[in-house]
Specification:
Strand 6 and strand 7 form a beta hairpin. The chain is built from 23 helices and 20 strands. Among the domains are: 359-444 and 604-748, Butyryl-CoA Dehydrogenase, subunit A, domain 3, CATH 1.20.140; 480-599, Butyryl-CoA Dehydrogenase, subunit A, domain 2, CATH 2.40.110.10. 49% of the residues lie in helices and 15% in strands. The protein is of the alpha+beta class. The two termini are 34 Å apart.
C-alpha cells in the first residue's frame, strides 16, 4: 500500500499548473503528451496510471479548463474496453497524437445507463449536450440493441452546436436511420465495457471537481483577507473563518474520496463501482456546498461575472449531471451496500504493489487471517457481549483490563514502535488489525494510557520515565486518566487555573480537573498545571504525572445523559507530585499538550469502529424492516461514503506517523471533526430506526448486567444510549469549533 504521491505525480502537477496558468489549448495538450496519457503504450500512448490522470484532471479543474476528461480520458477508456483490435490500432494512436478528436455520446437522462437511442441495423434517436461533438472527427454513440447496450462509430444525421454550461462547447446529435459501425463487432453487449469506461471517466471527473474546490477555496481566502468591512478584513471574523474552515474540511474529504476512486480502478468491478460511485455521490454534495459558500462569502461580487466563481460553479453543476447524476450514483452505491462484505470490509484489496495503490500482499492476507483466527478462538462471549452492550466510546475498564491480559505480546499497542514493546507491524497490518478487531467486537480499551500518554512519554519523557511507565501501561498495572479541562475553561486549555507550586523536589498541586474519563478506575493522571502566571498564558503551563492514590485527591462522579458513569471531576488539595514526574521542562506543557492532542484527535485508526457501527446500523434497520425503504437507504449510503473518505484520510495521516512524524494538527482536526459527525450520524439513524421501541428507557448500568438476549435484541437495546453518548463526540478532545479554528489558522492565518 502506498498513498503518498511520487516524483511522477509531483512533476506532472508542477508542469501542468504552470502551463495551464498561461492558457493552454488542445494543441498544447497533444504536445505535452496529455492526450496520450490515458492511452495504453501498445497503441502509442503513455499508459498513464490513474493517479497521474487524477493529478492532471485536478489541475484542469483548478484552472477552469473543460473538455480533457470528456475528450481524452473517456474515449480512450471506451475504445480500450469495447473496440476490436483493428479499431484500437486505427483510433488510439491518432487520439494520442491529437490527430483525431473523438466525442462520446451517451447521456440521455439522470441514470448511469439510461439509453433510449435504438440500433436495429441503423441508429434512431437523439443525444443531448455531447461535449466537443461540434468539432469531433469521430462520434462514439451508445444505443439499445437486442443483445443489450452497444457502442457505435457513426456520423450524425444532424449536429446542433451551442455553448456548454461549463464554458466549453457541446452539441445535440440526431440519428434517423443512420448507418453505424458497432465497436467490437455486431451482437456484442457492451454494458460491462461501457461501465468500466464510465467509471474511469467519473474517477477523473471527481479529481477535476476537487481541483475546482481548491480554486474556490483559494479565491475565497484571498478575497476575505483583502476585503475590509467595519474596519477589519473579512478573514478576521470568526463566523466567516469557520465557514472557510468547513470548506477546507469538505475539500479534504473530497480528496480522500477522489483518491479512493482513482486507486480502485484496477480492482474488481464491484469494488471499482463502490469507490467511483461513492466518490461521485460524495464529491457532488461537497463540491456544491463549497461553491455555494464561496459565492456567499464573496458577497455581491460572488454573483458577478467579474469573478471566476461562477465558472467553477457551472463546471460543478455539469459534473453532477454528466455520466450519471449524483443521486443515481448514490443509489448505485446504496445497492452495493446491501452486500455485507462491502459494508463490513475495509478498503484494502489483494493486488499489485506498483505505484500508488491500496494493495495487500499475500503476507498481509496471511496476517489478517491469523488475527481473525485469534479473535474467533479467544474473544469469549461474555467479553464480546459486554462490549456489544457498551454505549460509551471506551470499554468498561474492568472488561478492558481483563481482555488486555489475553492478548499476545505487542497486540495491545499496534501503533507502538517495536523497541517500546510494540509489534513492529507495517501500516497495512495495523489497518488490517483495526478492521479485524472491530469486526470481532474487541473491547475498546486503548484509551488515554495507550494512545495519548504513551506517545508523549516516547517523545518527551526521560529514559527513567519511559523505563518505569511504559511497561506498566503495557501490562495494565497503571491505568491513566486525562487532566486537561477545568470548570470554566473547557476547550480553552490556555486559561487553566489548576496550580502547581515548586517545593524542593516536589510540586504542590491545588485545583481541579473535569470530564476526567474513567478517573474513578484510574491509578494515574497526566495533567496540565499552571506553574507561572507571568507572560503569555501558554508559557506558564507544565505537564505533570499525578498519582491518583496520593493524599489530597478526591473525585466527584458525573453521570452522562445516556445513564453511564464515565466522567468525573477530580480535586487536588495540596497534592504532592515529585519533580521527577514532570514531563519536559517547566513551561513546556503547551507544546506537549498540542502533540498529545494530535494523537487523541487523529493519531489512530477509527475506521474499523465506524465500519462496525455501520454494519450494526444495517442489522438494526433490518430488524425494523427498513432496509428496503428509499429514505433509509439514501441516508445509509451517504454515511457509507463518509466512512470511505474517512478511511482514506486516516491512511494518509498514519503514513506520516509510519515515517516517524505525527499526524499533524490540521489533518488531526479534520479527522476529529469527521469521526465525530459520522459516529453521531450512525447512532442517530440507528436510534430512529427503532420506532416506538426507542422510547423504552432502561436504567440498569452497565447494560450487560441485564439478562442475556439475542445479539440483535441487545444491539437494539443499546442503540438509544449510544445515540445519547455520541453527542459528546463533537465536544471532547477539543470541541469541533476549536478544530475549525485550528484549520482556519492554517488556511487563513
Amino acid at each position: 500500500m502506498r498513498l503518498t504521491p511520487g516524483d511522477d505525480e509531483r512533476l506532472l502537477r508542477d508542469a501542468a499548473r504552470g502551463l495551464l496558468a498561461r492558457g493552454a489549448g488542445w494543441a498544447d495538450f497533444a504536445e505535452q503528451g496529455w492526450l496520450a496519457l490515458p492511452v495504453t503504450e501498445a497503441f502509442g500512448g503513455l499508459g498513464g496510471a490513474a493517479p497521474l490522470i487524477a493529478v492532471l484532471a485536478e489541475e484542469m479543474g483548478r484552472a477552469r479548463i473543460p473538455g480533457w476528461v470528456a475528450g481524452a480520458v473517456l474515449p480512450a477508456a471506451l475504445i480500450e474496453a469495447a473496440a476490436s483490435e483493428a479499431q484500437k490500432a486505427e483510433w488510439l494512436p491518432a487520439l494520442a497524437e491529437g490527430r483525431l478528436r473523438i466525442a462520446v455520446a451517451h447521456d440521455e437522462d439522470r441514470t448511469l445507463l439510461g439509453v433510449a437511442t435504438r440500433w436495429d441495423g441503423a441508429l434512431h434517436g437523439r443525444k443531448r449536450a455531447v461535449m466537443g461533438a461540434g468539432t469531433a472527427d469521430l462520434w462514439l454513440v451508445t444505443a439499445r440493441t437486442d443483445a443489450g447496450l452497444g457502442v457505435f462509430a457513426v456520423t450524425p444525421f444532424a449536429v446542433t452546436e451551442y455553448d456548454h454550461i461549463d464554458g466549453g462547447r457541446a452539441a445535440d446529435l440526431t440519428f434517423a436511420a443512420t448507418l453505424a459501425v458497432p465497436l467490437g463487432g455486431p451482437g456484442t453487449d457492451a454494458t460491462p465495457a461501457l461501465l468500466e469506461a464510465l467509471d474511469r471517466a467519473n474517477a477523473a471527473a471527481c479529481a477535476e471537481a476537487l481541483g475546482a474546490m481548491e480554486g474556490l477555496i483559494d479565491a475565497t481566502v484571498d478575497y476575505t483577507k483583502t476585503r475590509v468591512q467595519f474596519g477589519q478584513p473579512l478573514a478576521k471574523f470568526q463566523a466567516l473563518r469557520h465557514r472557510m474552515a468547513e470548506m477546507a474540511v469538505k475539500r479534504d474529504e473530497a480528496r480522500g474520496s477522489a483518491l479512493l476512486a482513482a486507486l480502485s480502478l484496477t480492482l474488481s468491478p464491484r469494488d471499482r463501482a463502490r469507490a467511483v460511485s461513492g466518490a461521485r455521490a460524495k464529491i457532488g454534495r461537497l463540491s456544491r456546498h463549497v461553491a455555494h459558500e464561496a459565492i456567499q462569502l464573496h458577497g455581491a461580487m460572488g454573483v458577478s461575472e467579474e469573478m471566476p466563481l461562477g465558472l467553477w460553479l457551472r463546471g460543478l453543476f455539469a459534473f453532477e449531471n454528466r455520466w450519471g447524476h449524483t443521486d443515481a450514483h448514490l443509489a448505485r452505491y446504496a445497492d452495493l451496500m446491501a452486500d455485507p462484505a462491502l459494508r463490513e470490509e475495509g478498503l484494502l484489496r489483494p493486488g499489485s504493489d506498483a505505484g500508488m495503490n491500496l494493495s495487500t500482499s499475500p503476507e498481509d492476507i496471511a496476517f489478517r487471517d491469523q488475527v481473525r483466527a485469534f479473535f474467533t478462538a479467544t474473544l469469549d462471549p461474555a467479553t464480546e457481549r459486554a462490549e456489544r452492550l457498551n454505549p460509551s466510546f471506551l470499554a468498561h475498564p474492568p472488561t478492558g483490563l481483563a481482555w488486555l491480559q489475553k492478548l499476545p505480546e505487542g497486540w495491545a499497542v499496534p501503533s507502538w514502535p517495536a523497541d517500546h514493546g510494540g509489534p513492529g507491524w507495517t501500516l497495512t497490518q495495523r489497518y488490517l488489525f483495526d478492521q479485524e478487531s472491530e469486526r470481532a467486537g474487541e473491547p475498546h480499551f486503548r484509551g488515554a494510557s495507550f494512545k495519548m500518554i504513551a506517545p508523549v512519554l516516547m517523545r518527551y519523557g526521560t529514559e527513567a520515565q519511559k523505563a518505569h511507565y511504559l511497561p506498566r501501561i503495557l501490562n495494565g498495572q497503571d491505568f491513566w486518566a486525562q487532566g486537561y479541562s477545568e470548570p470554566g475553561s473547557g476547550s480553552d486549555l490556555a486559561s487553566l487555573a489548576c496550580k502547581a507550586v515548586r517545593d524542593g523536589d516536589e510540586y504542590i498541586v491545588t485545583g481541579s480537573k473535569i470530564w476526567s474519563t474513567h478517573a474513578h478506575h484510574a491509578t494515574k493522571m497526566f495533567a496540565l498545571v499552571r506553574t507561572d502566571d507571568s507572560g503569555r498564558k501558554q508559557q506558564g503551563i507544565t505537564f505533570l504525572l499525578i498519582d491518583l492514590k496520593a493524599p489530597g485527591v478526591s473525585l466527584r462522579p458525573i453521570r452522562s445523559i445516556d445513564g453511564t458513569h464515565e466522567f468525573n471531576q477530580t480535586f487536588f488539595d495540596g497534592v504532592r507530585v515529585p519533580v521527577a514526574d514532570r514531563v519536559g521542562e517547566e513551561g513546556d506543557g503547551w507544546e506537549i499538550a498540542k502533540y498529545l492532542l494530535e494523537f487523541e484527535r487523529g493519531g489512530a485508526f477509527a475506521g474499523g469502529l465506524l465500519r462496525a457501527l455501520f454494519a450494526r446500523l444495517w442489522r438494526i434497520a433490518e430488524g425494523s424492516g427498513l432496509t428496503g425503504d428509499p429514505v433509509f437507504r439514501t441516508r445509509f449510503a451517504e454515511i457509507g461514503t463518509d466512512i470511505d473518505a474517512n478511511d482514506m484520510l486516516e491512511l494518509g495521516a498514519m503514513s506520516a506517523v509510519a515515517s516517524g512524524g505525527n499526524p499533524g494538527a490540521v489533518p488531526a482536526a479534520v479527522m476529529k471533526i469527521e469521526r465525530s459527525r459520522i459516529r453521531q450520524a450512525i447512532t442517530e439513524l440507528a436510534a430512529h430506526s427503532l420506532g416506538p421501541e426507542a422510547l423504552r428507557w432502561e436504567t440498569t448500568r452497565p447494560l450487560d448486567a441485564l439478562p442475556v438476549e439475542s445479539a440483535l435484541a441487545e444491539e437494539r437495546k443499546v442503540a438509544v444510549p449510544a445515540y445519547l453518548n455520541a453527542r459528546a463526540q463533537s465536544i471532547f478532545g477539543g470541541s469541533n469549533e476549536i478544530q475549525l479554528e485550528i484549520i482556519a489558522r492554517a488556511l487563513i492565518g
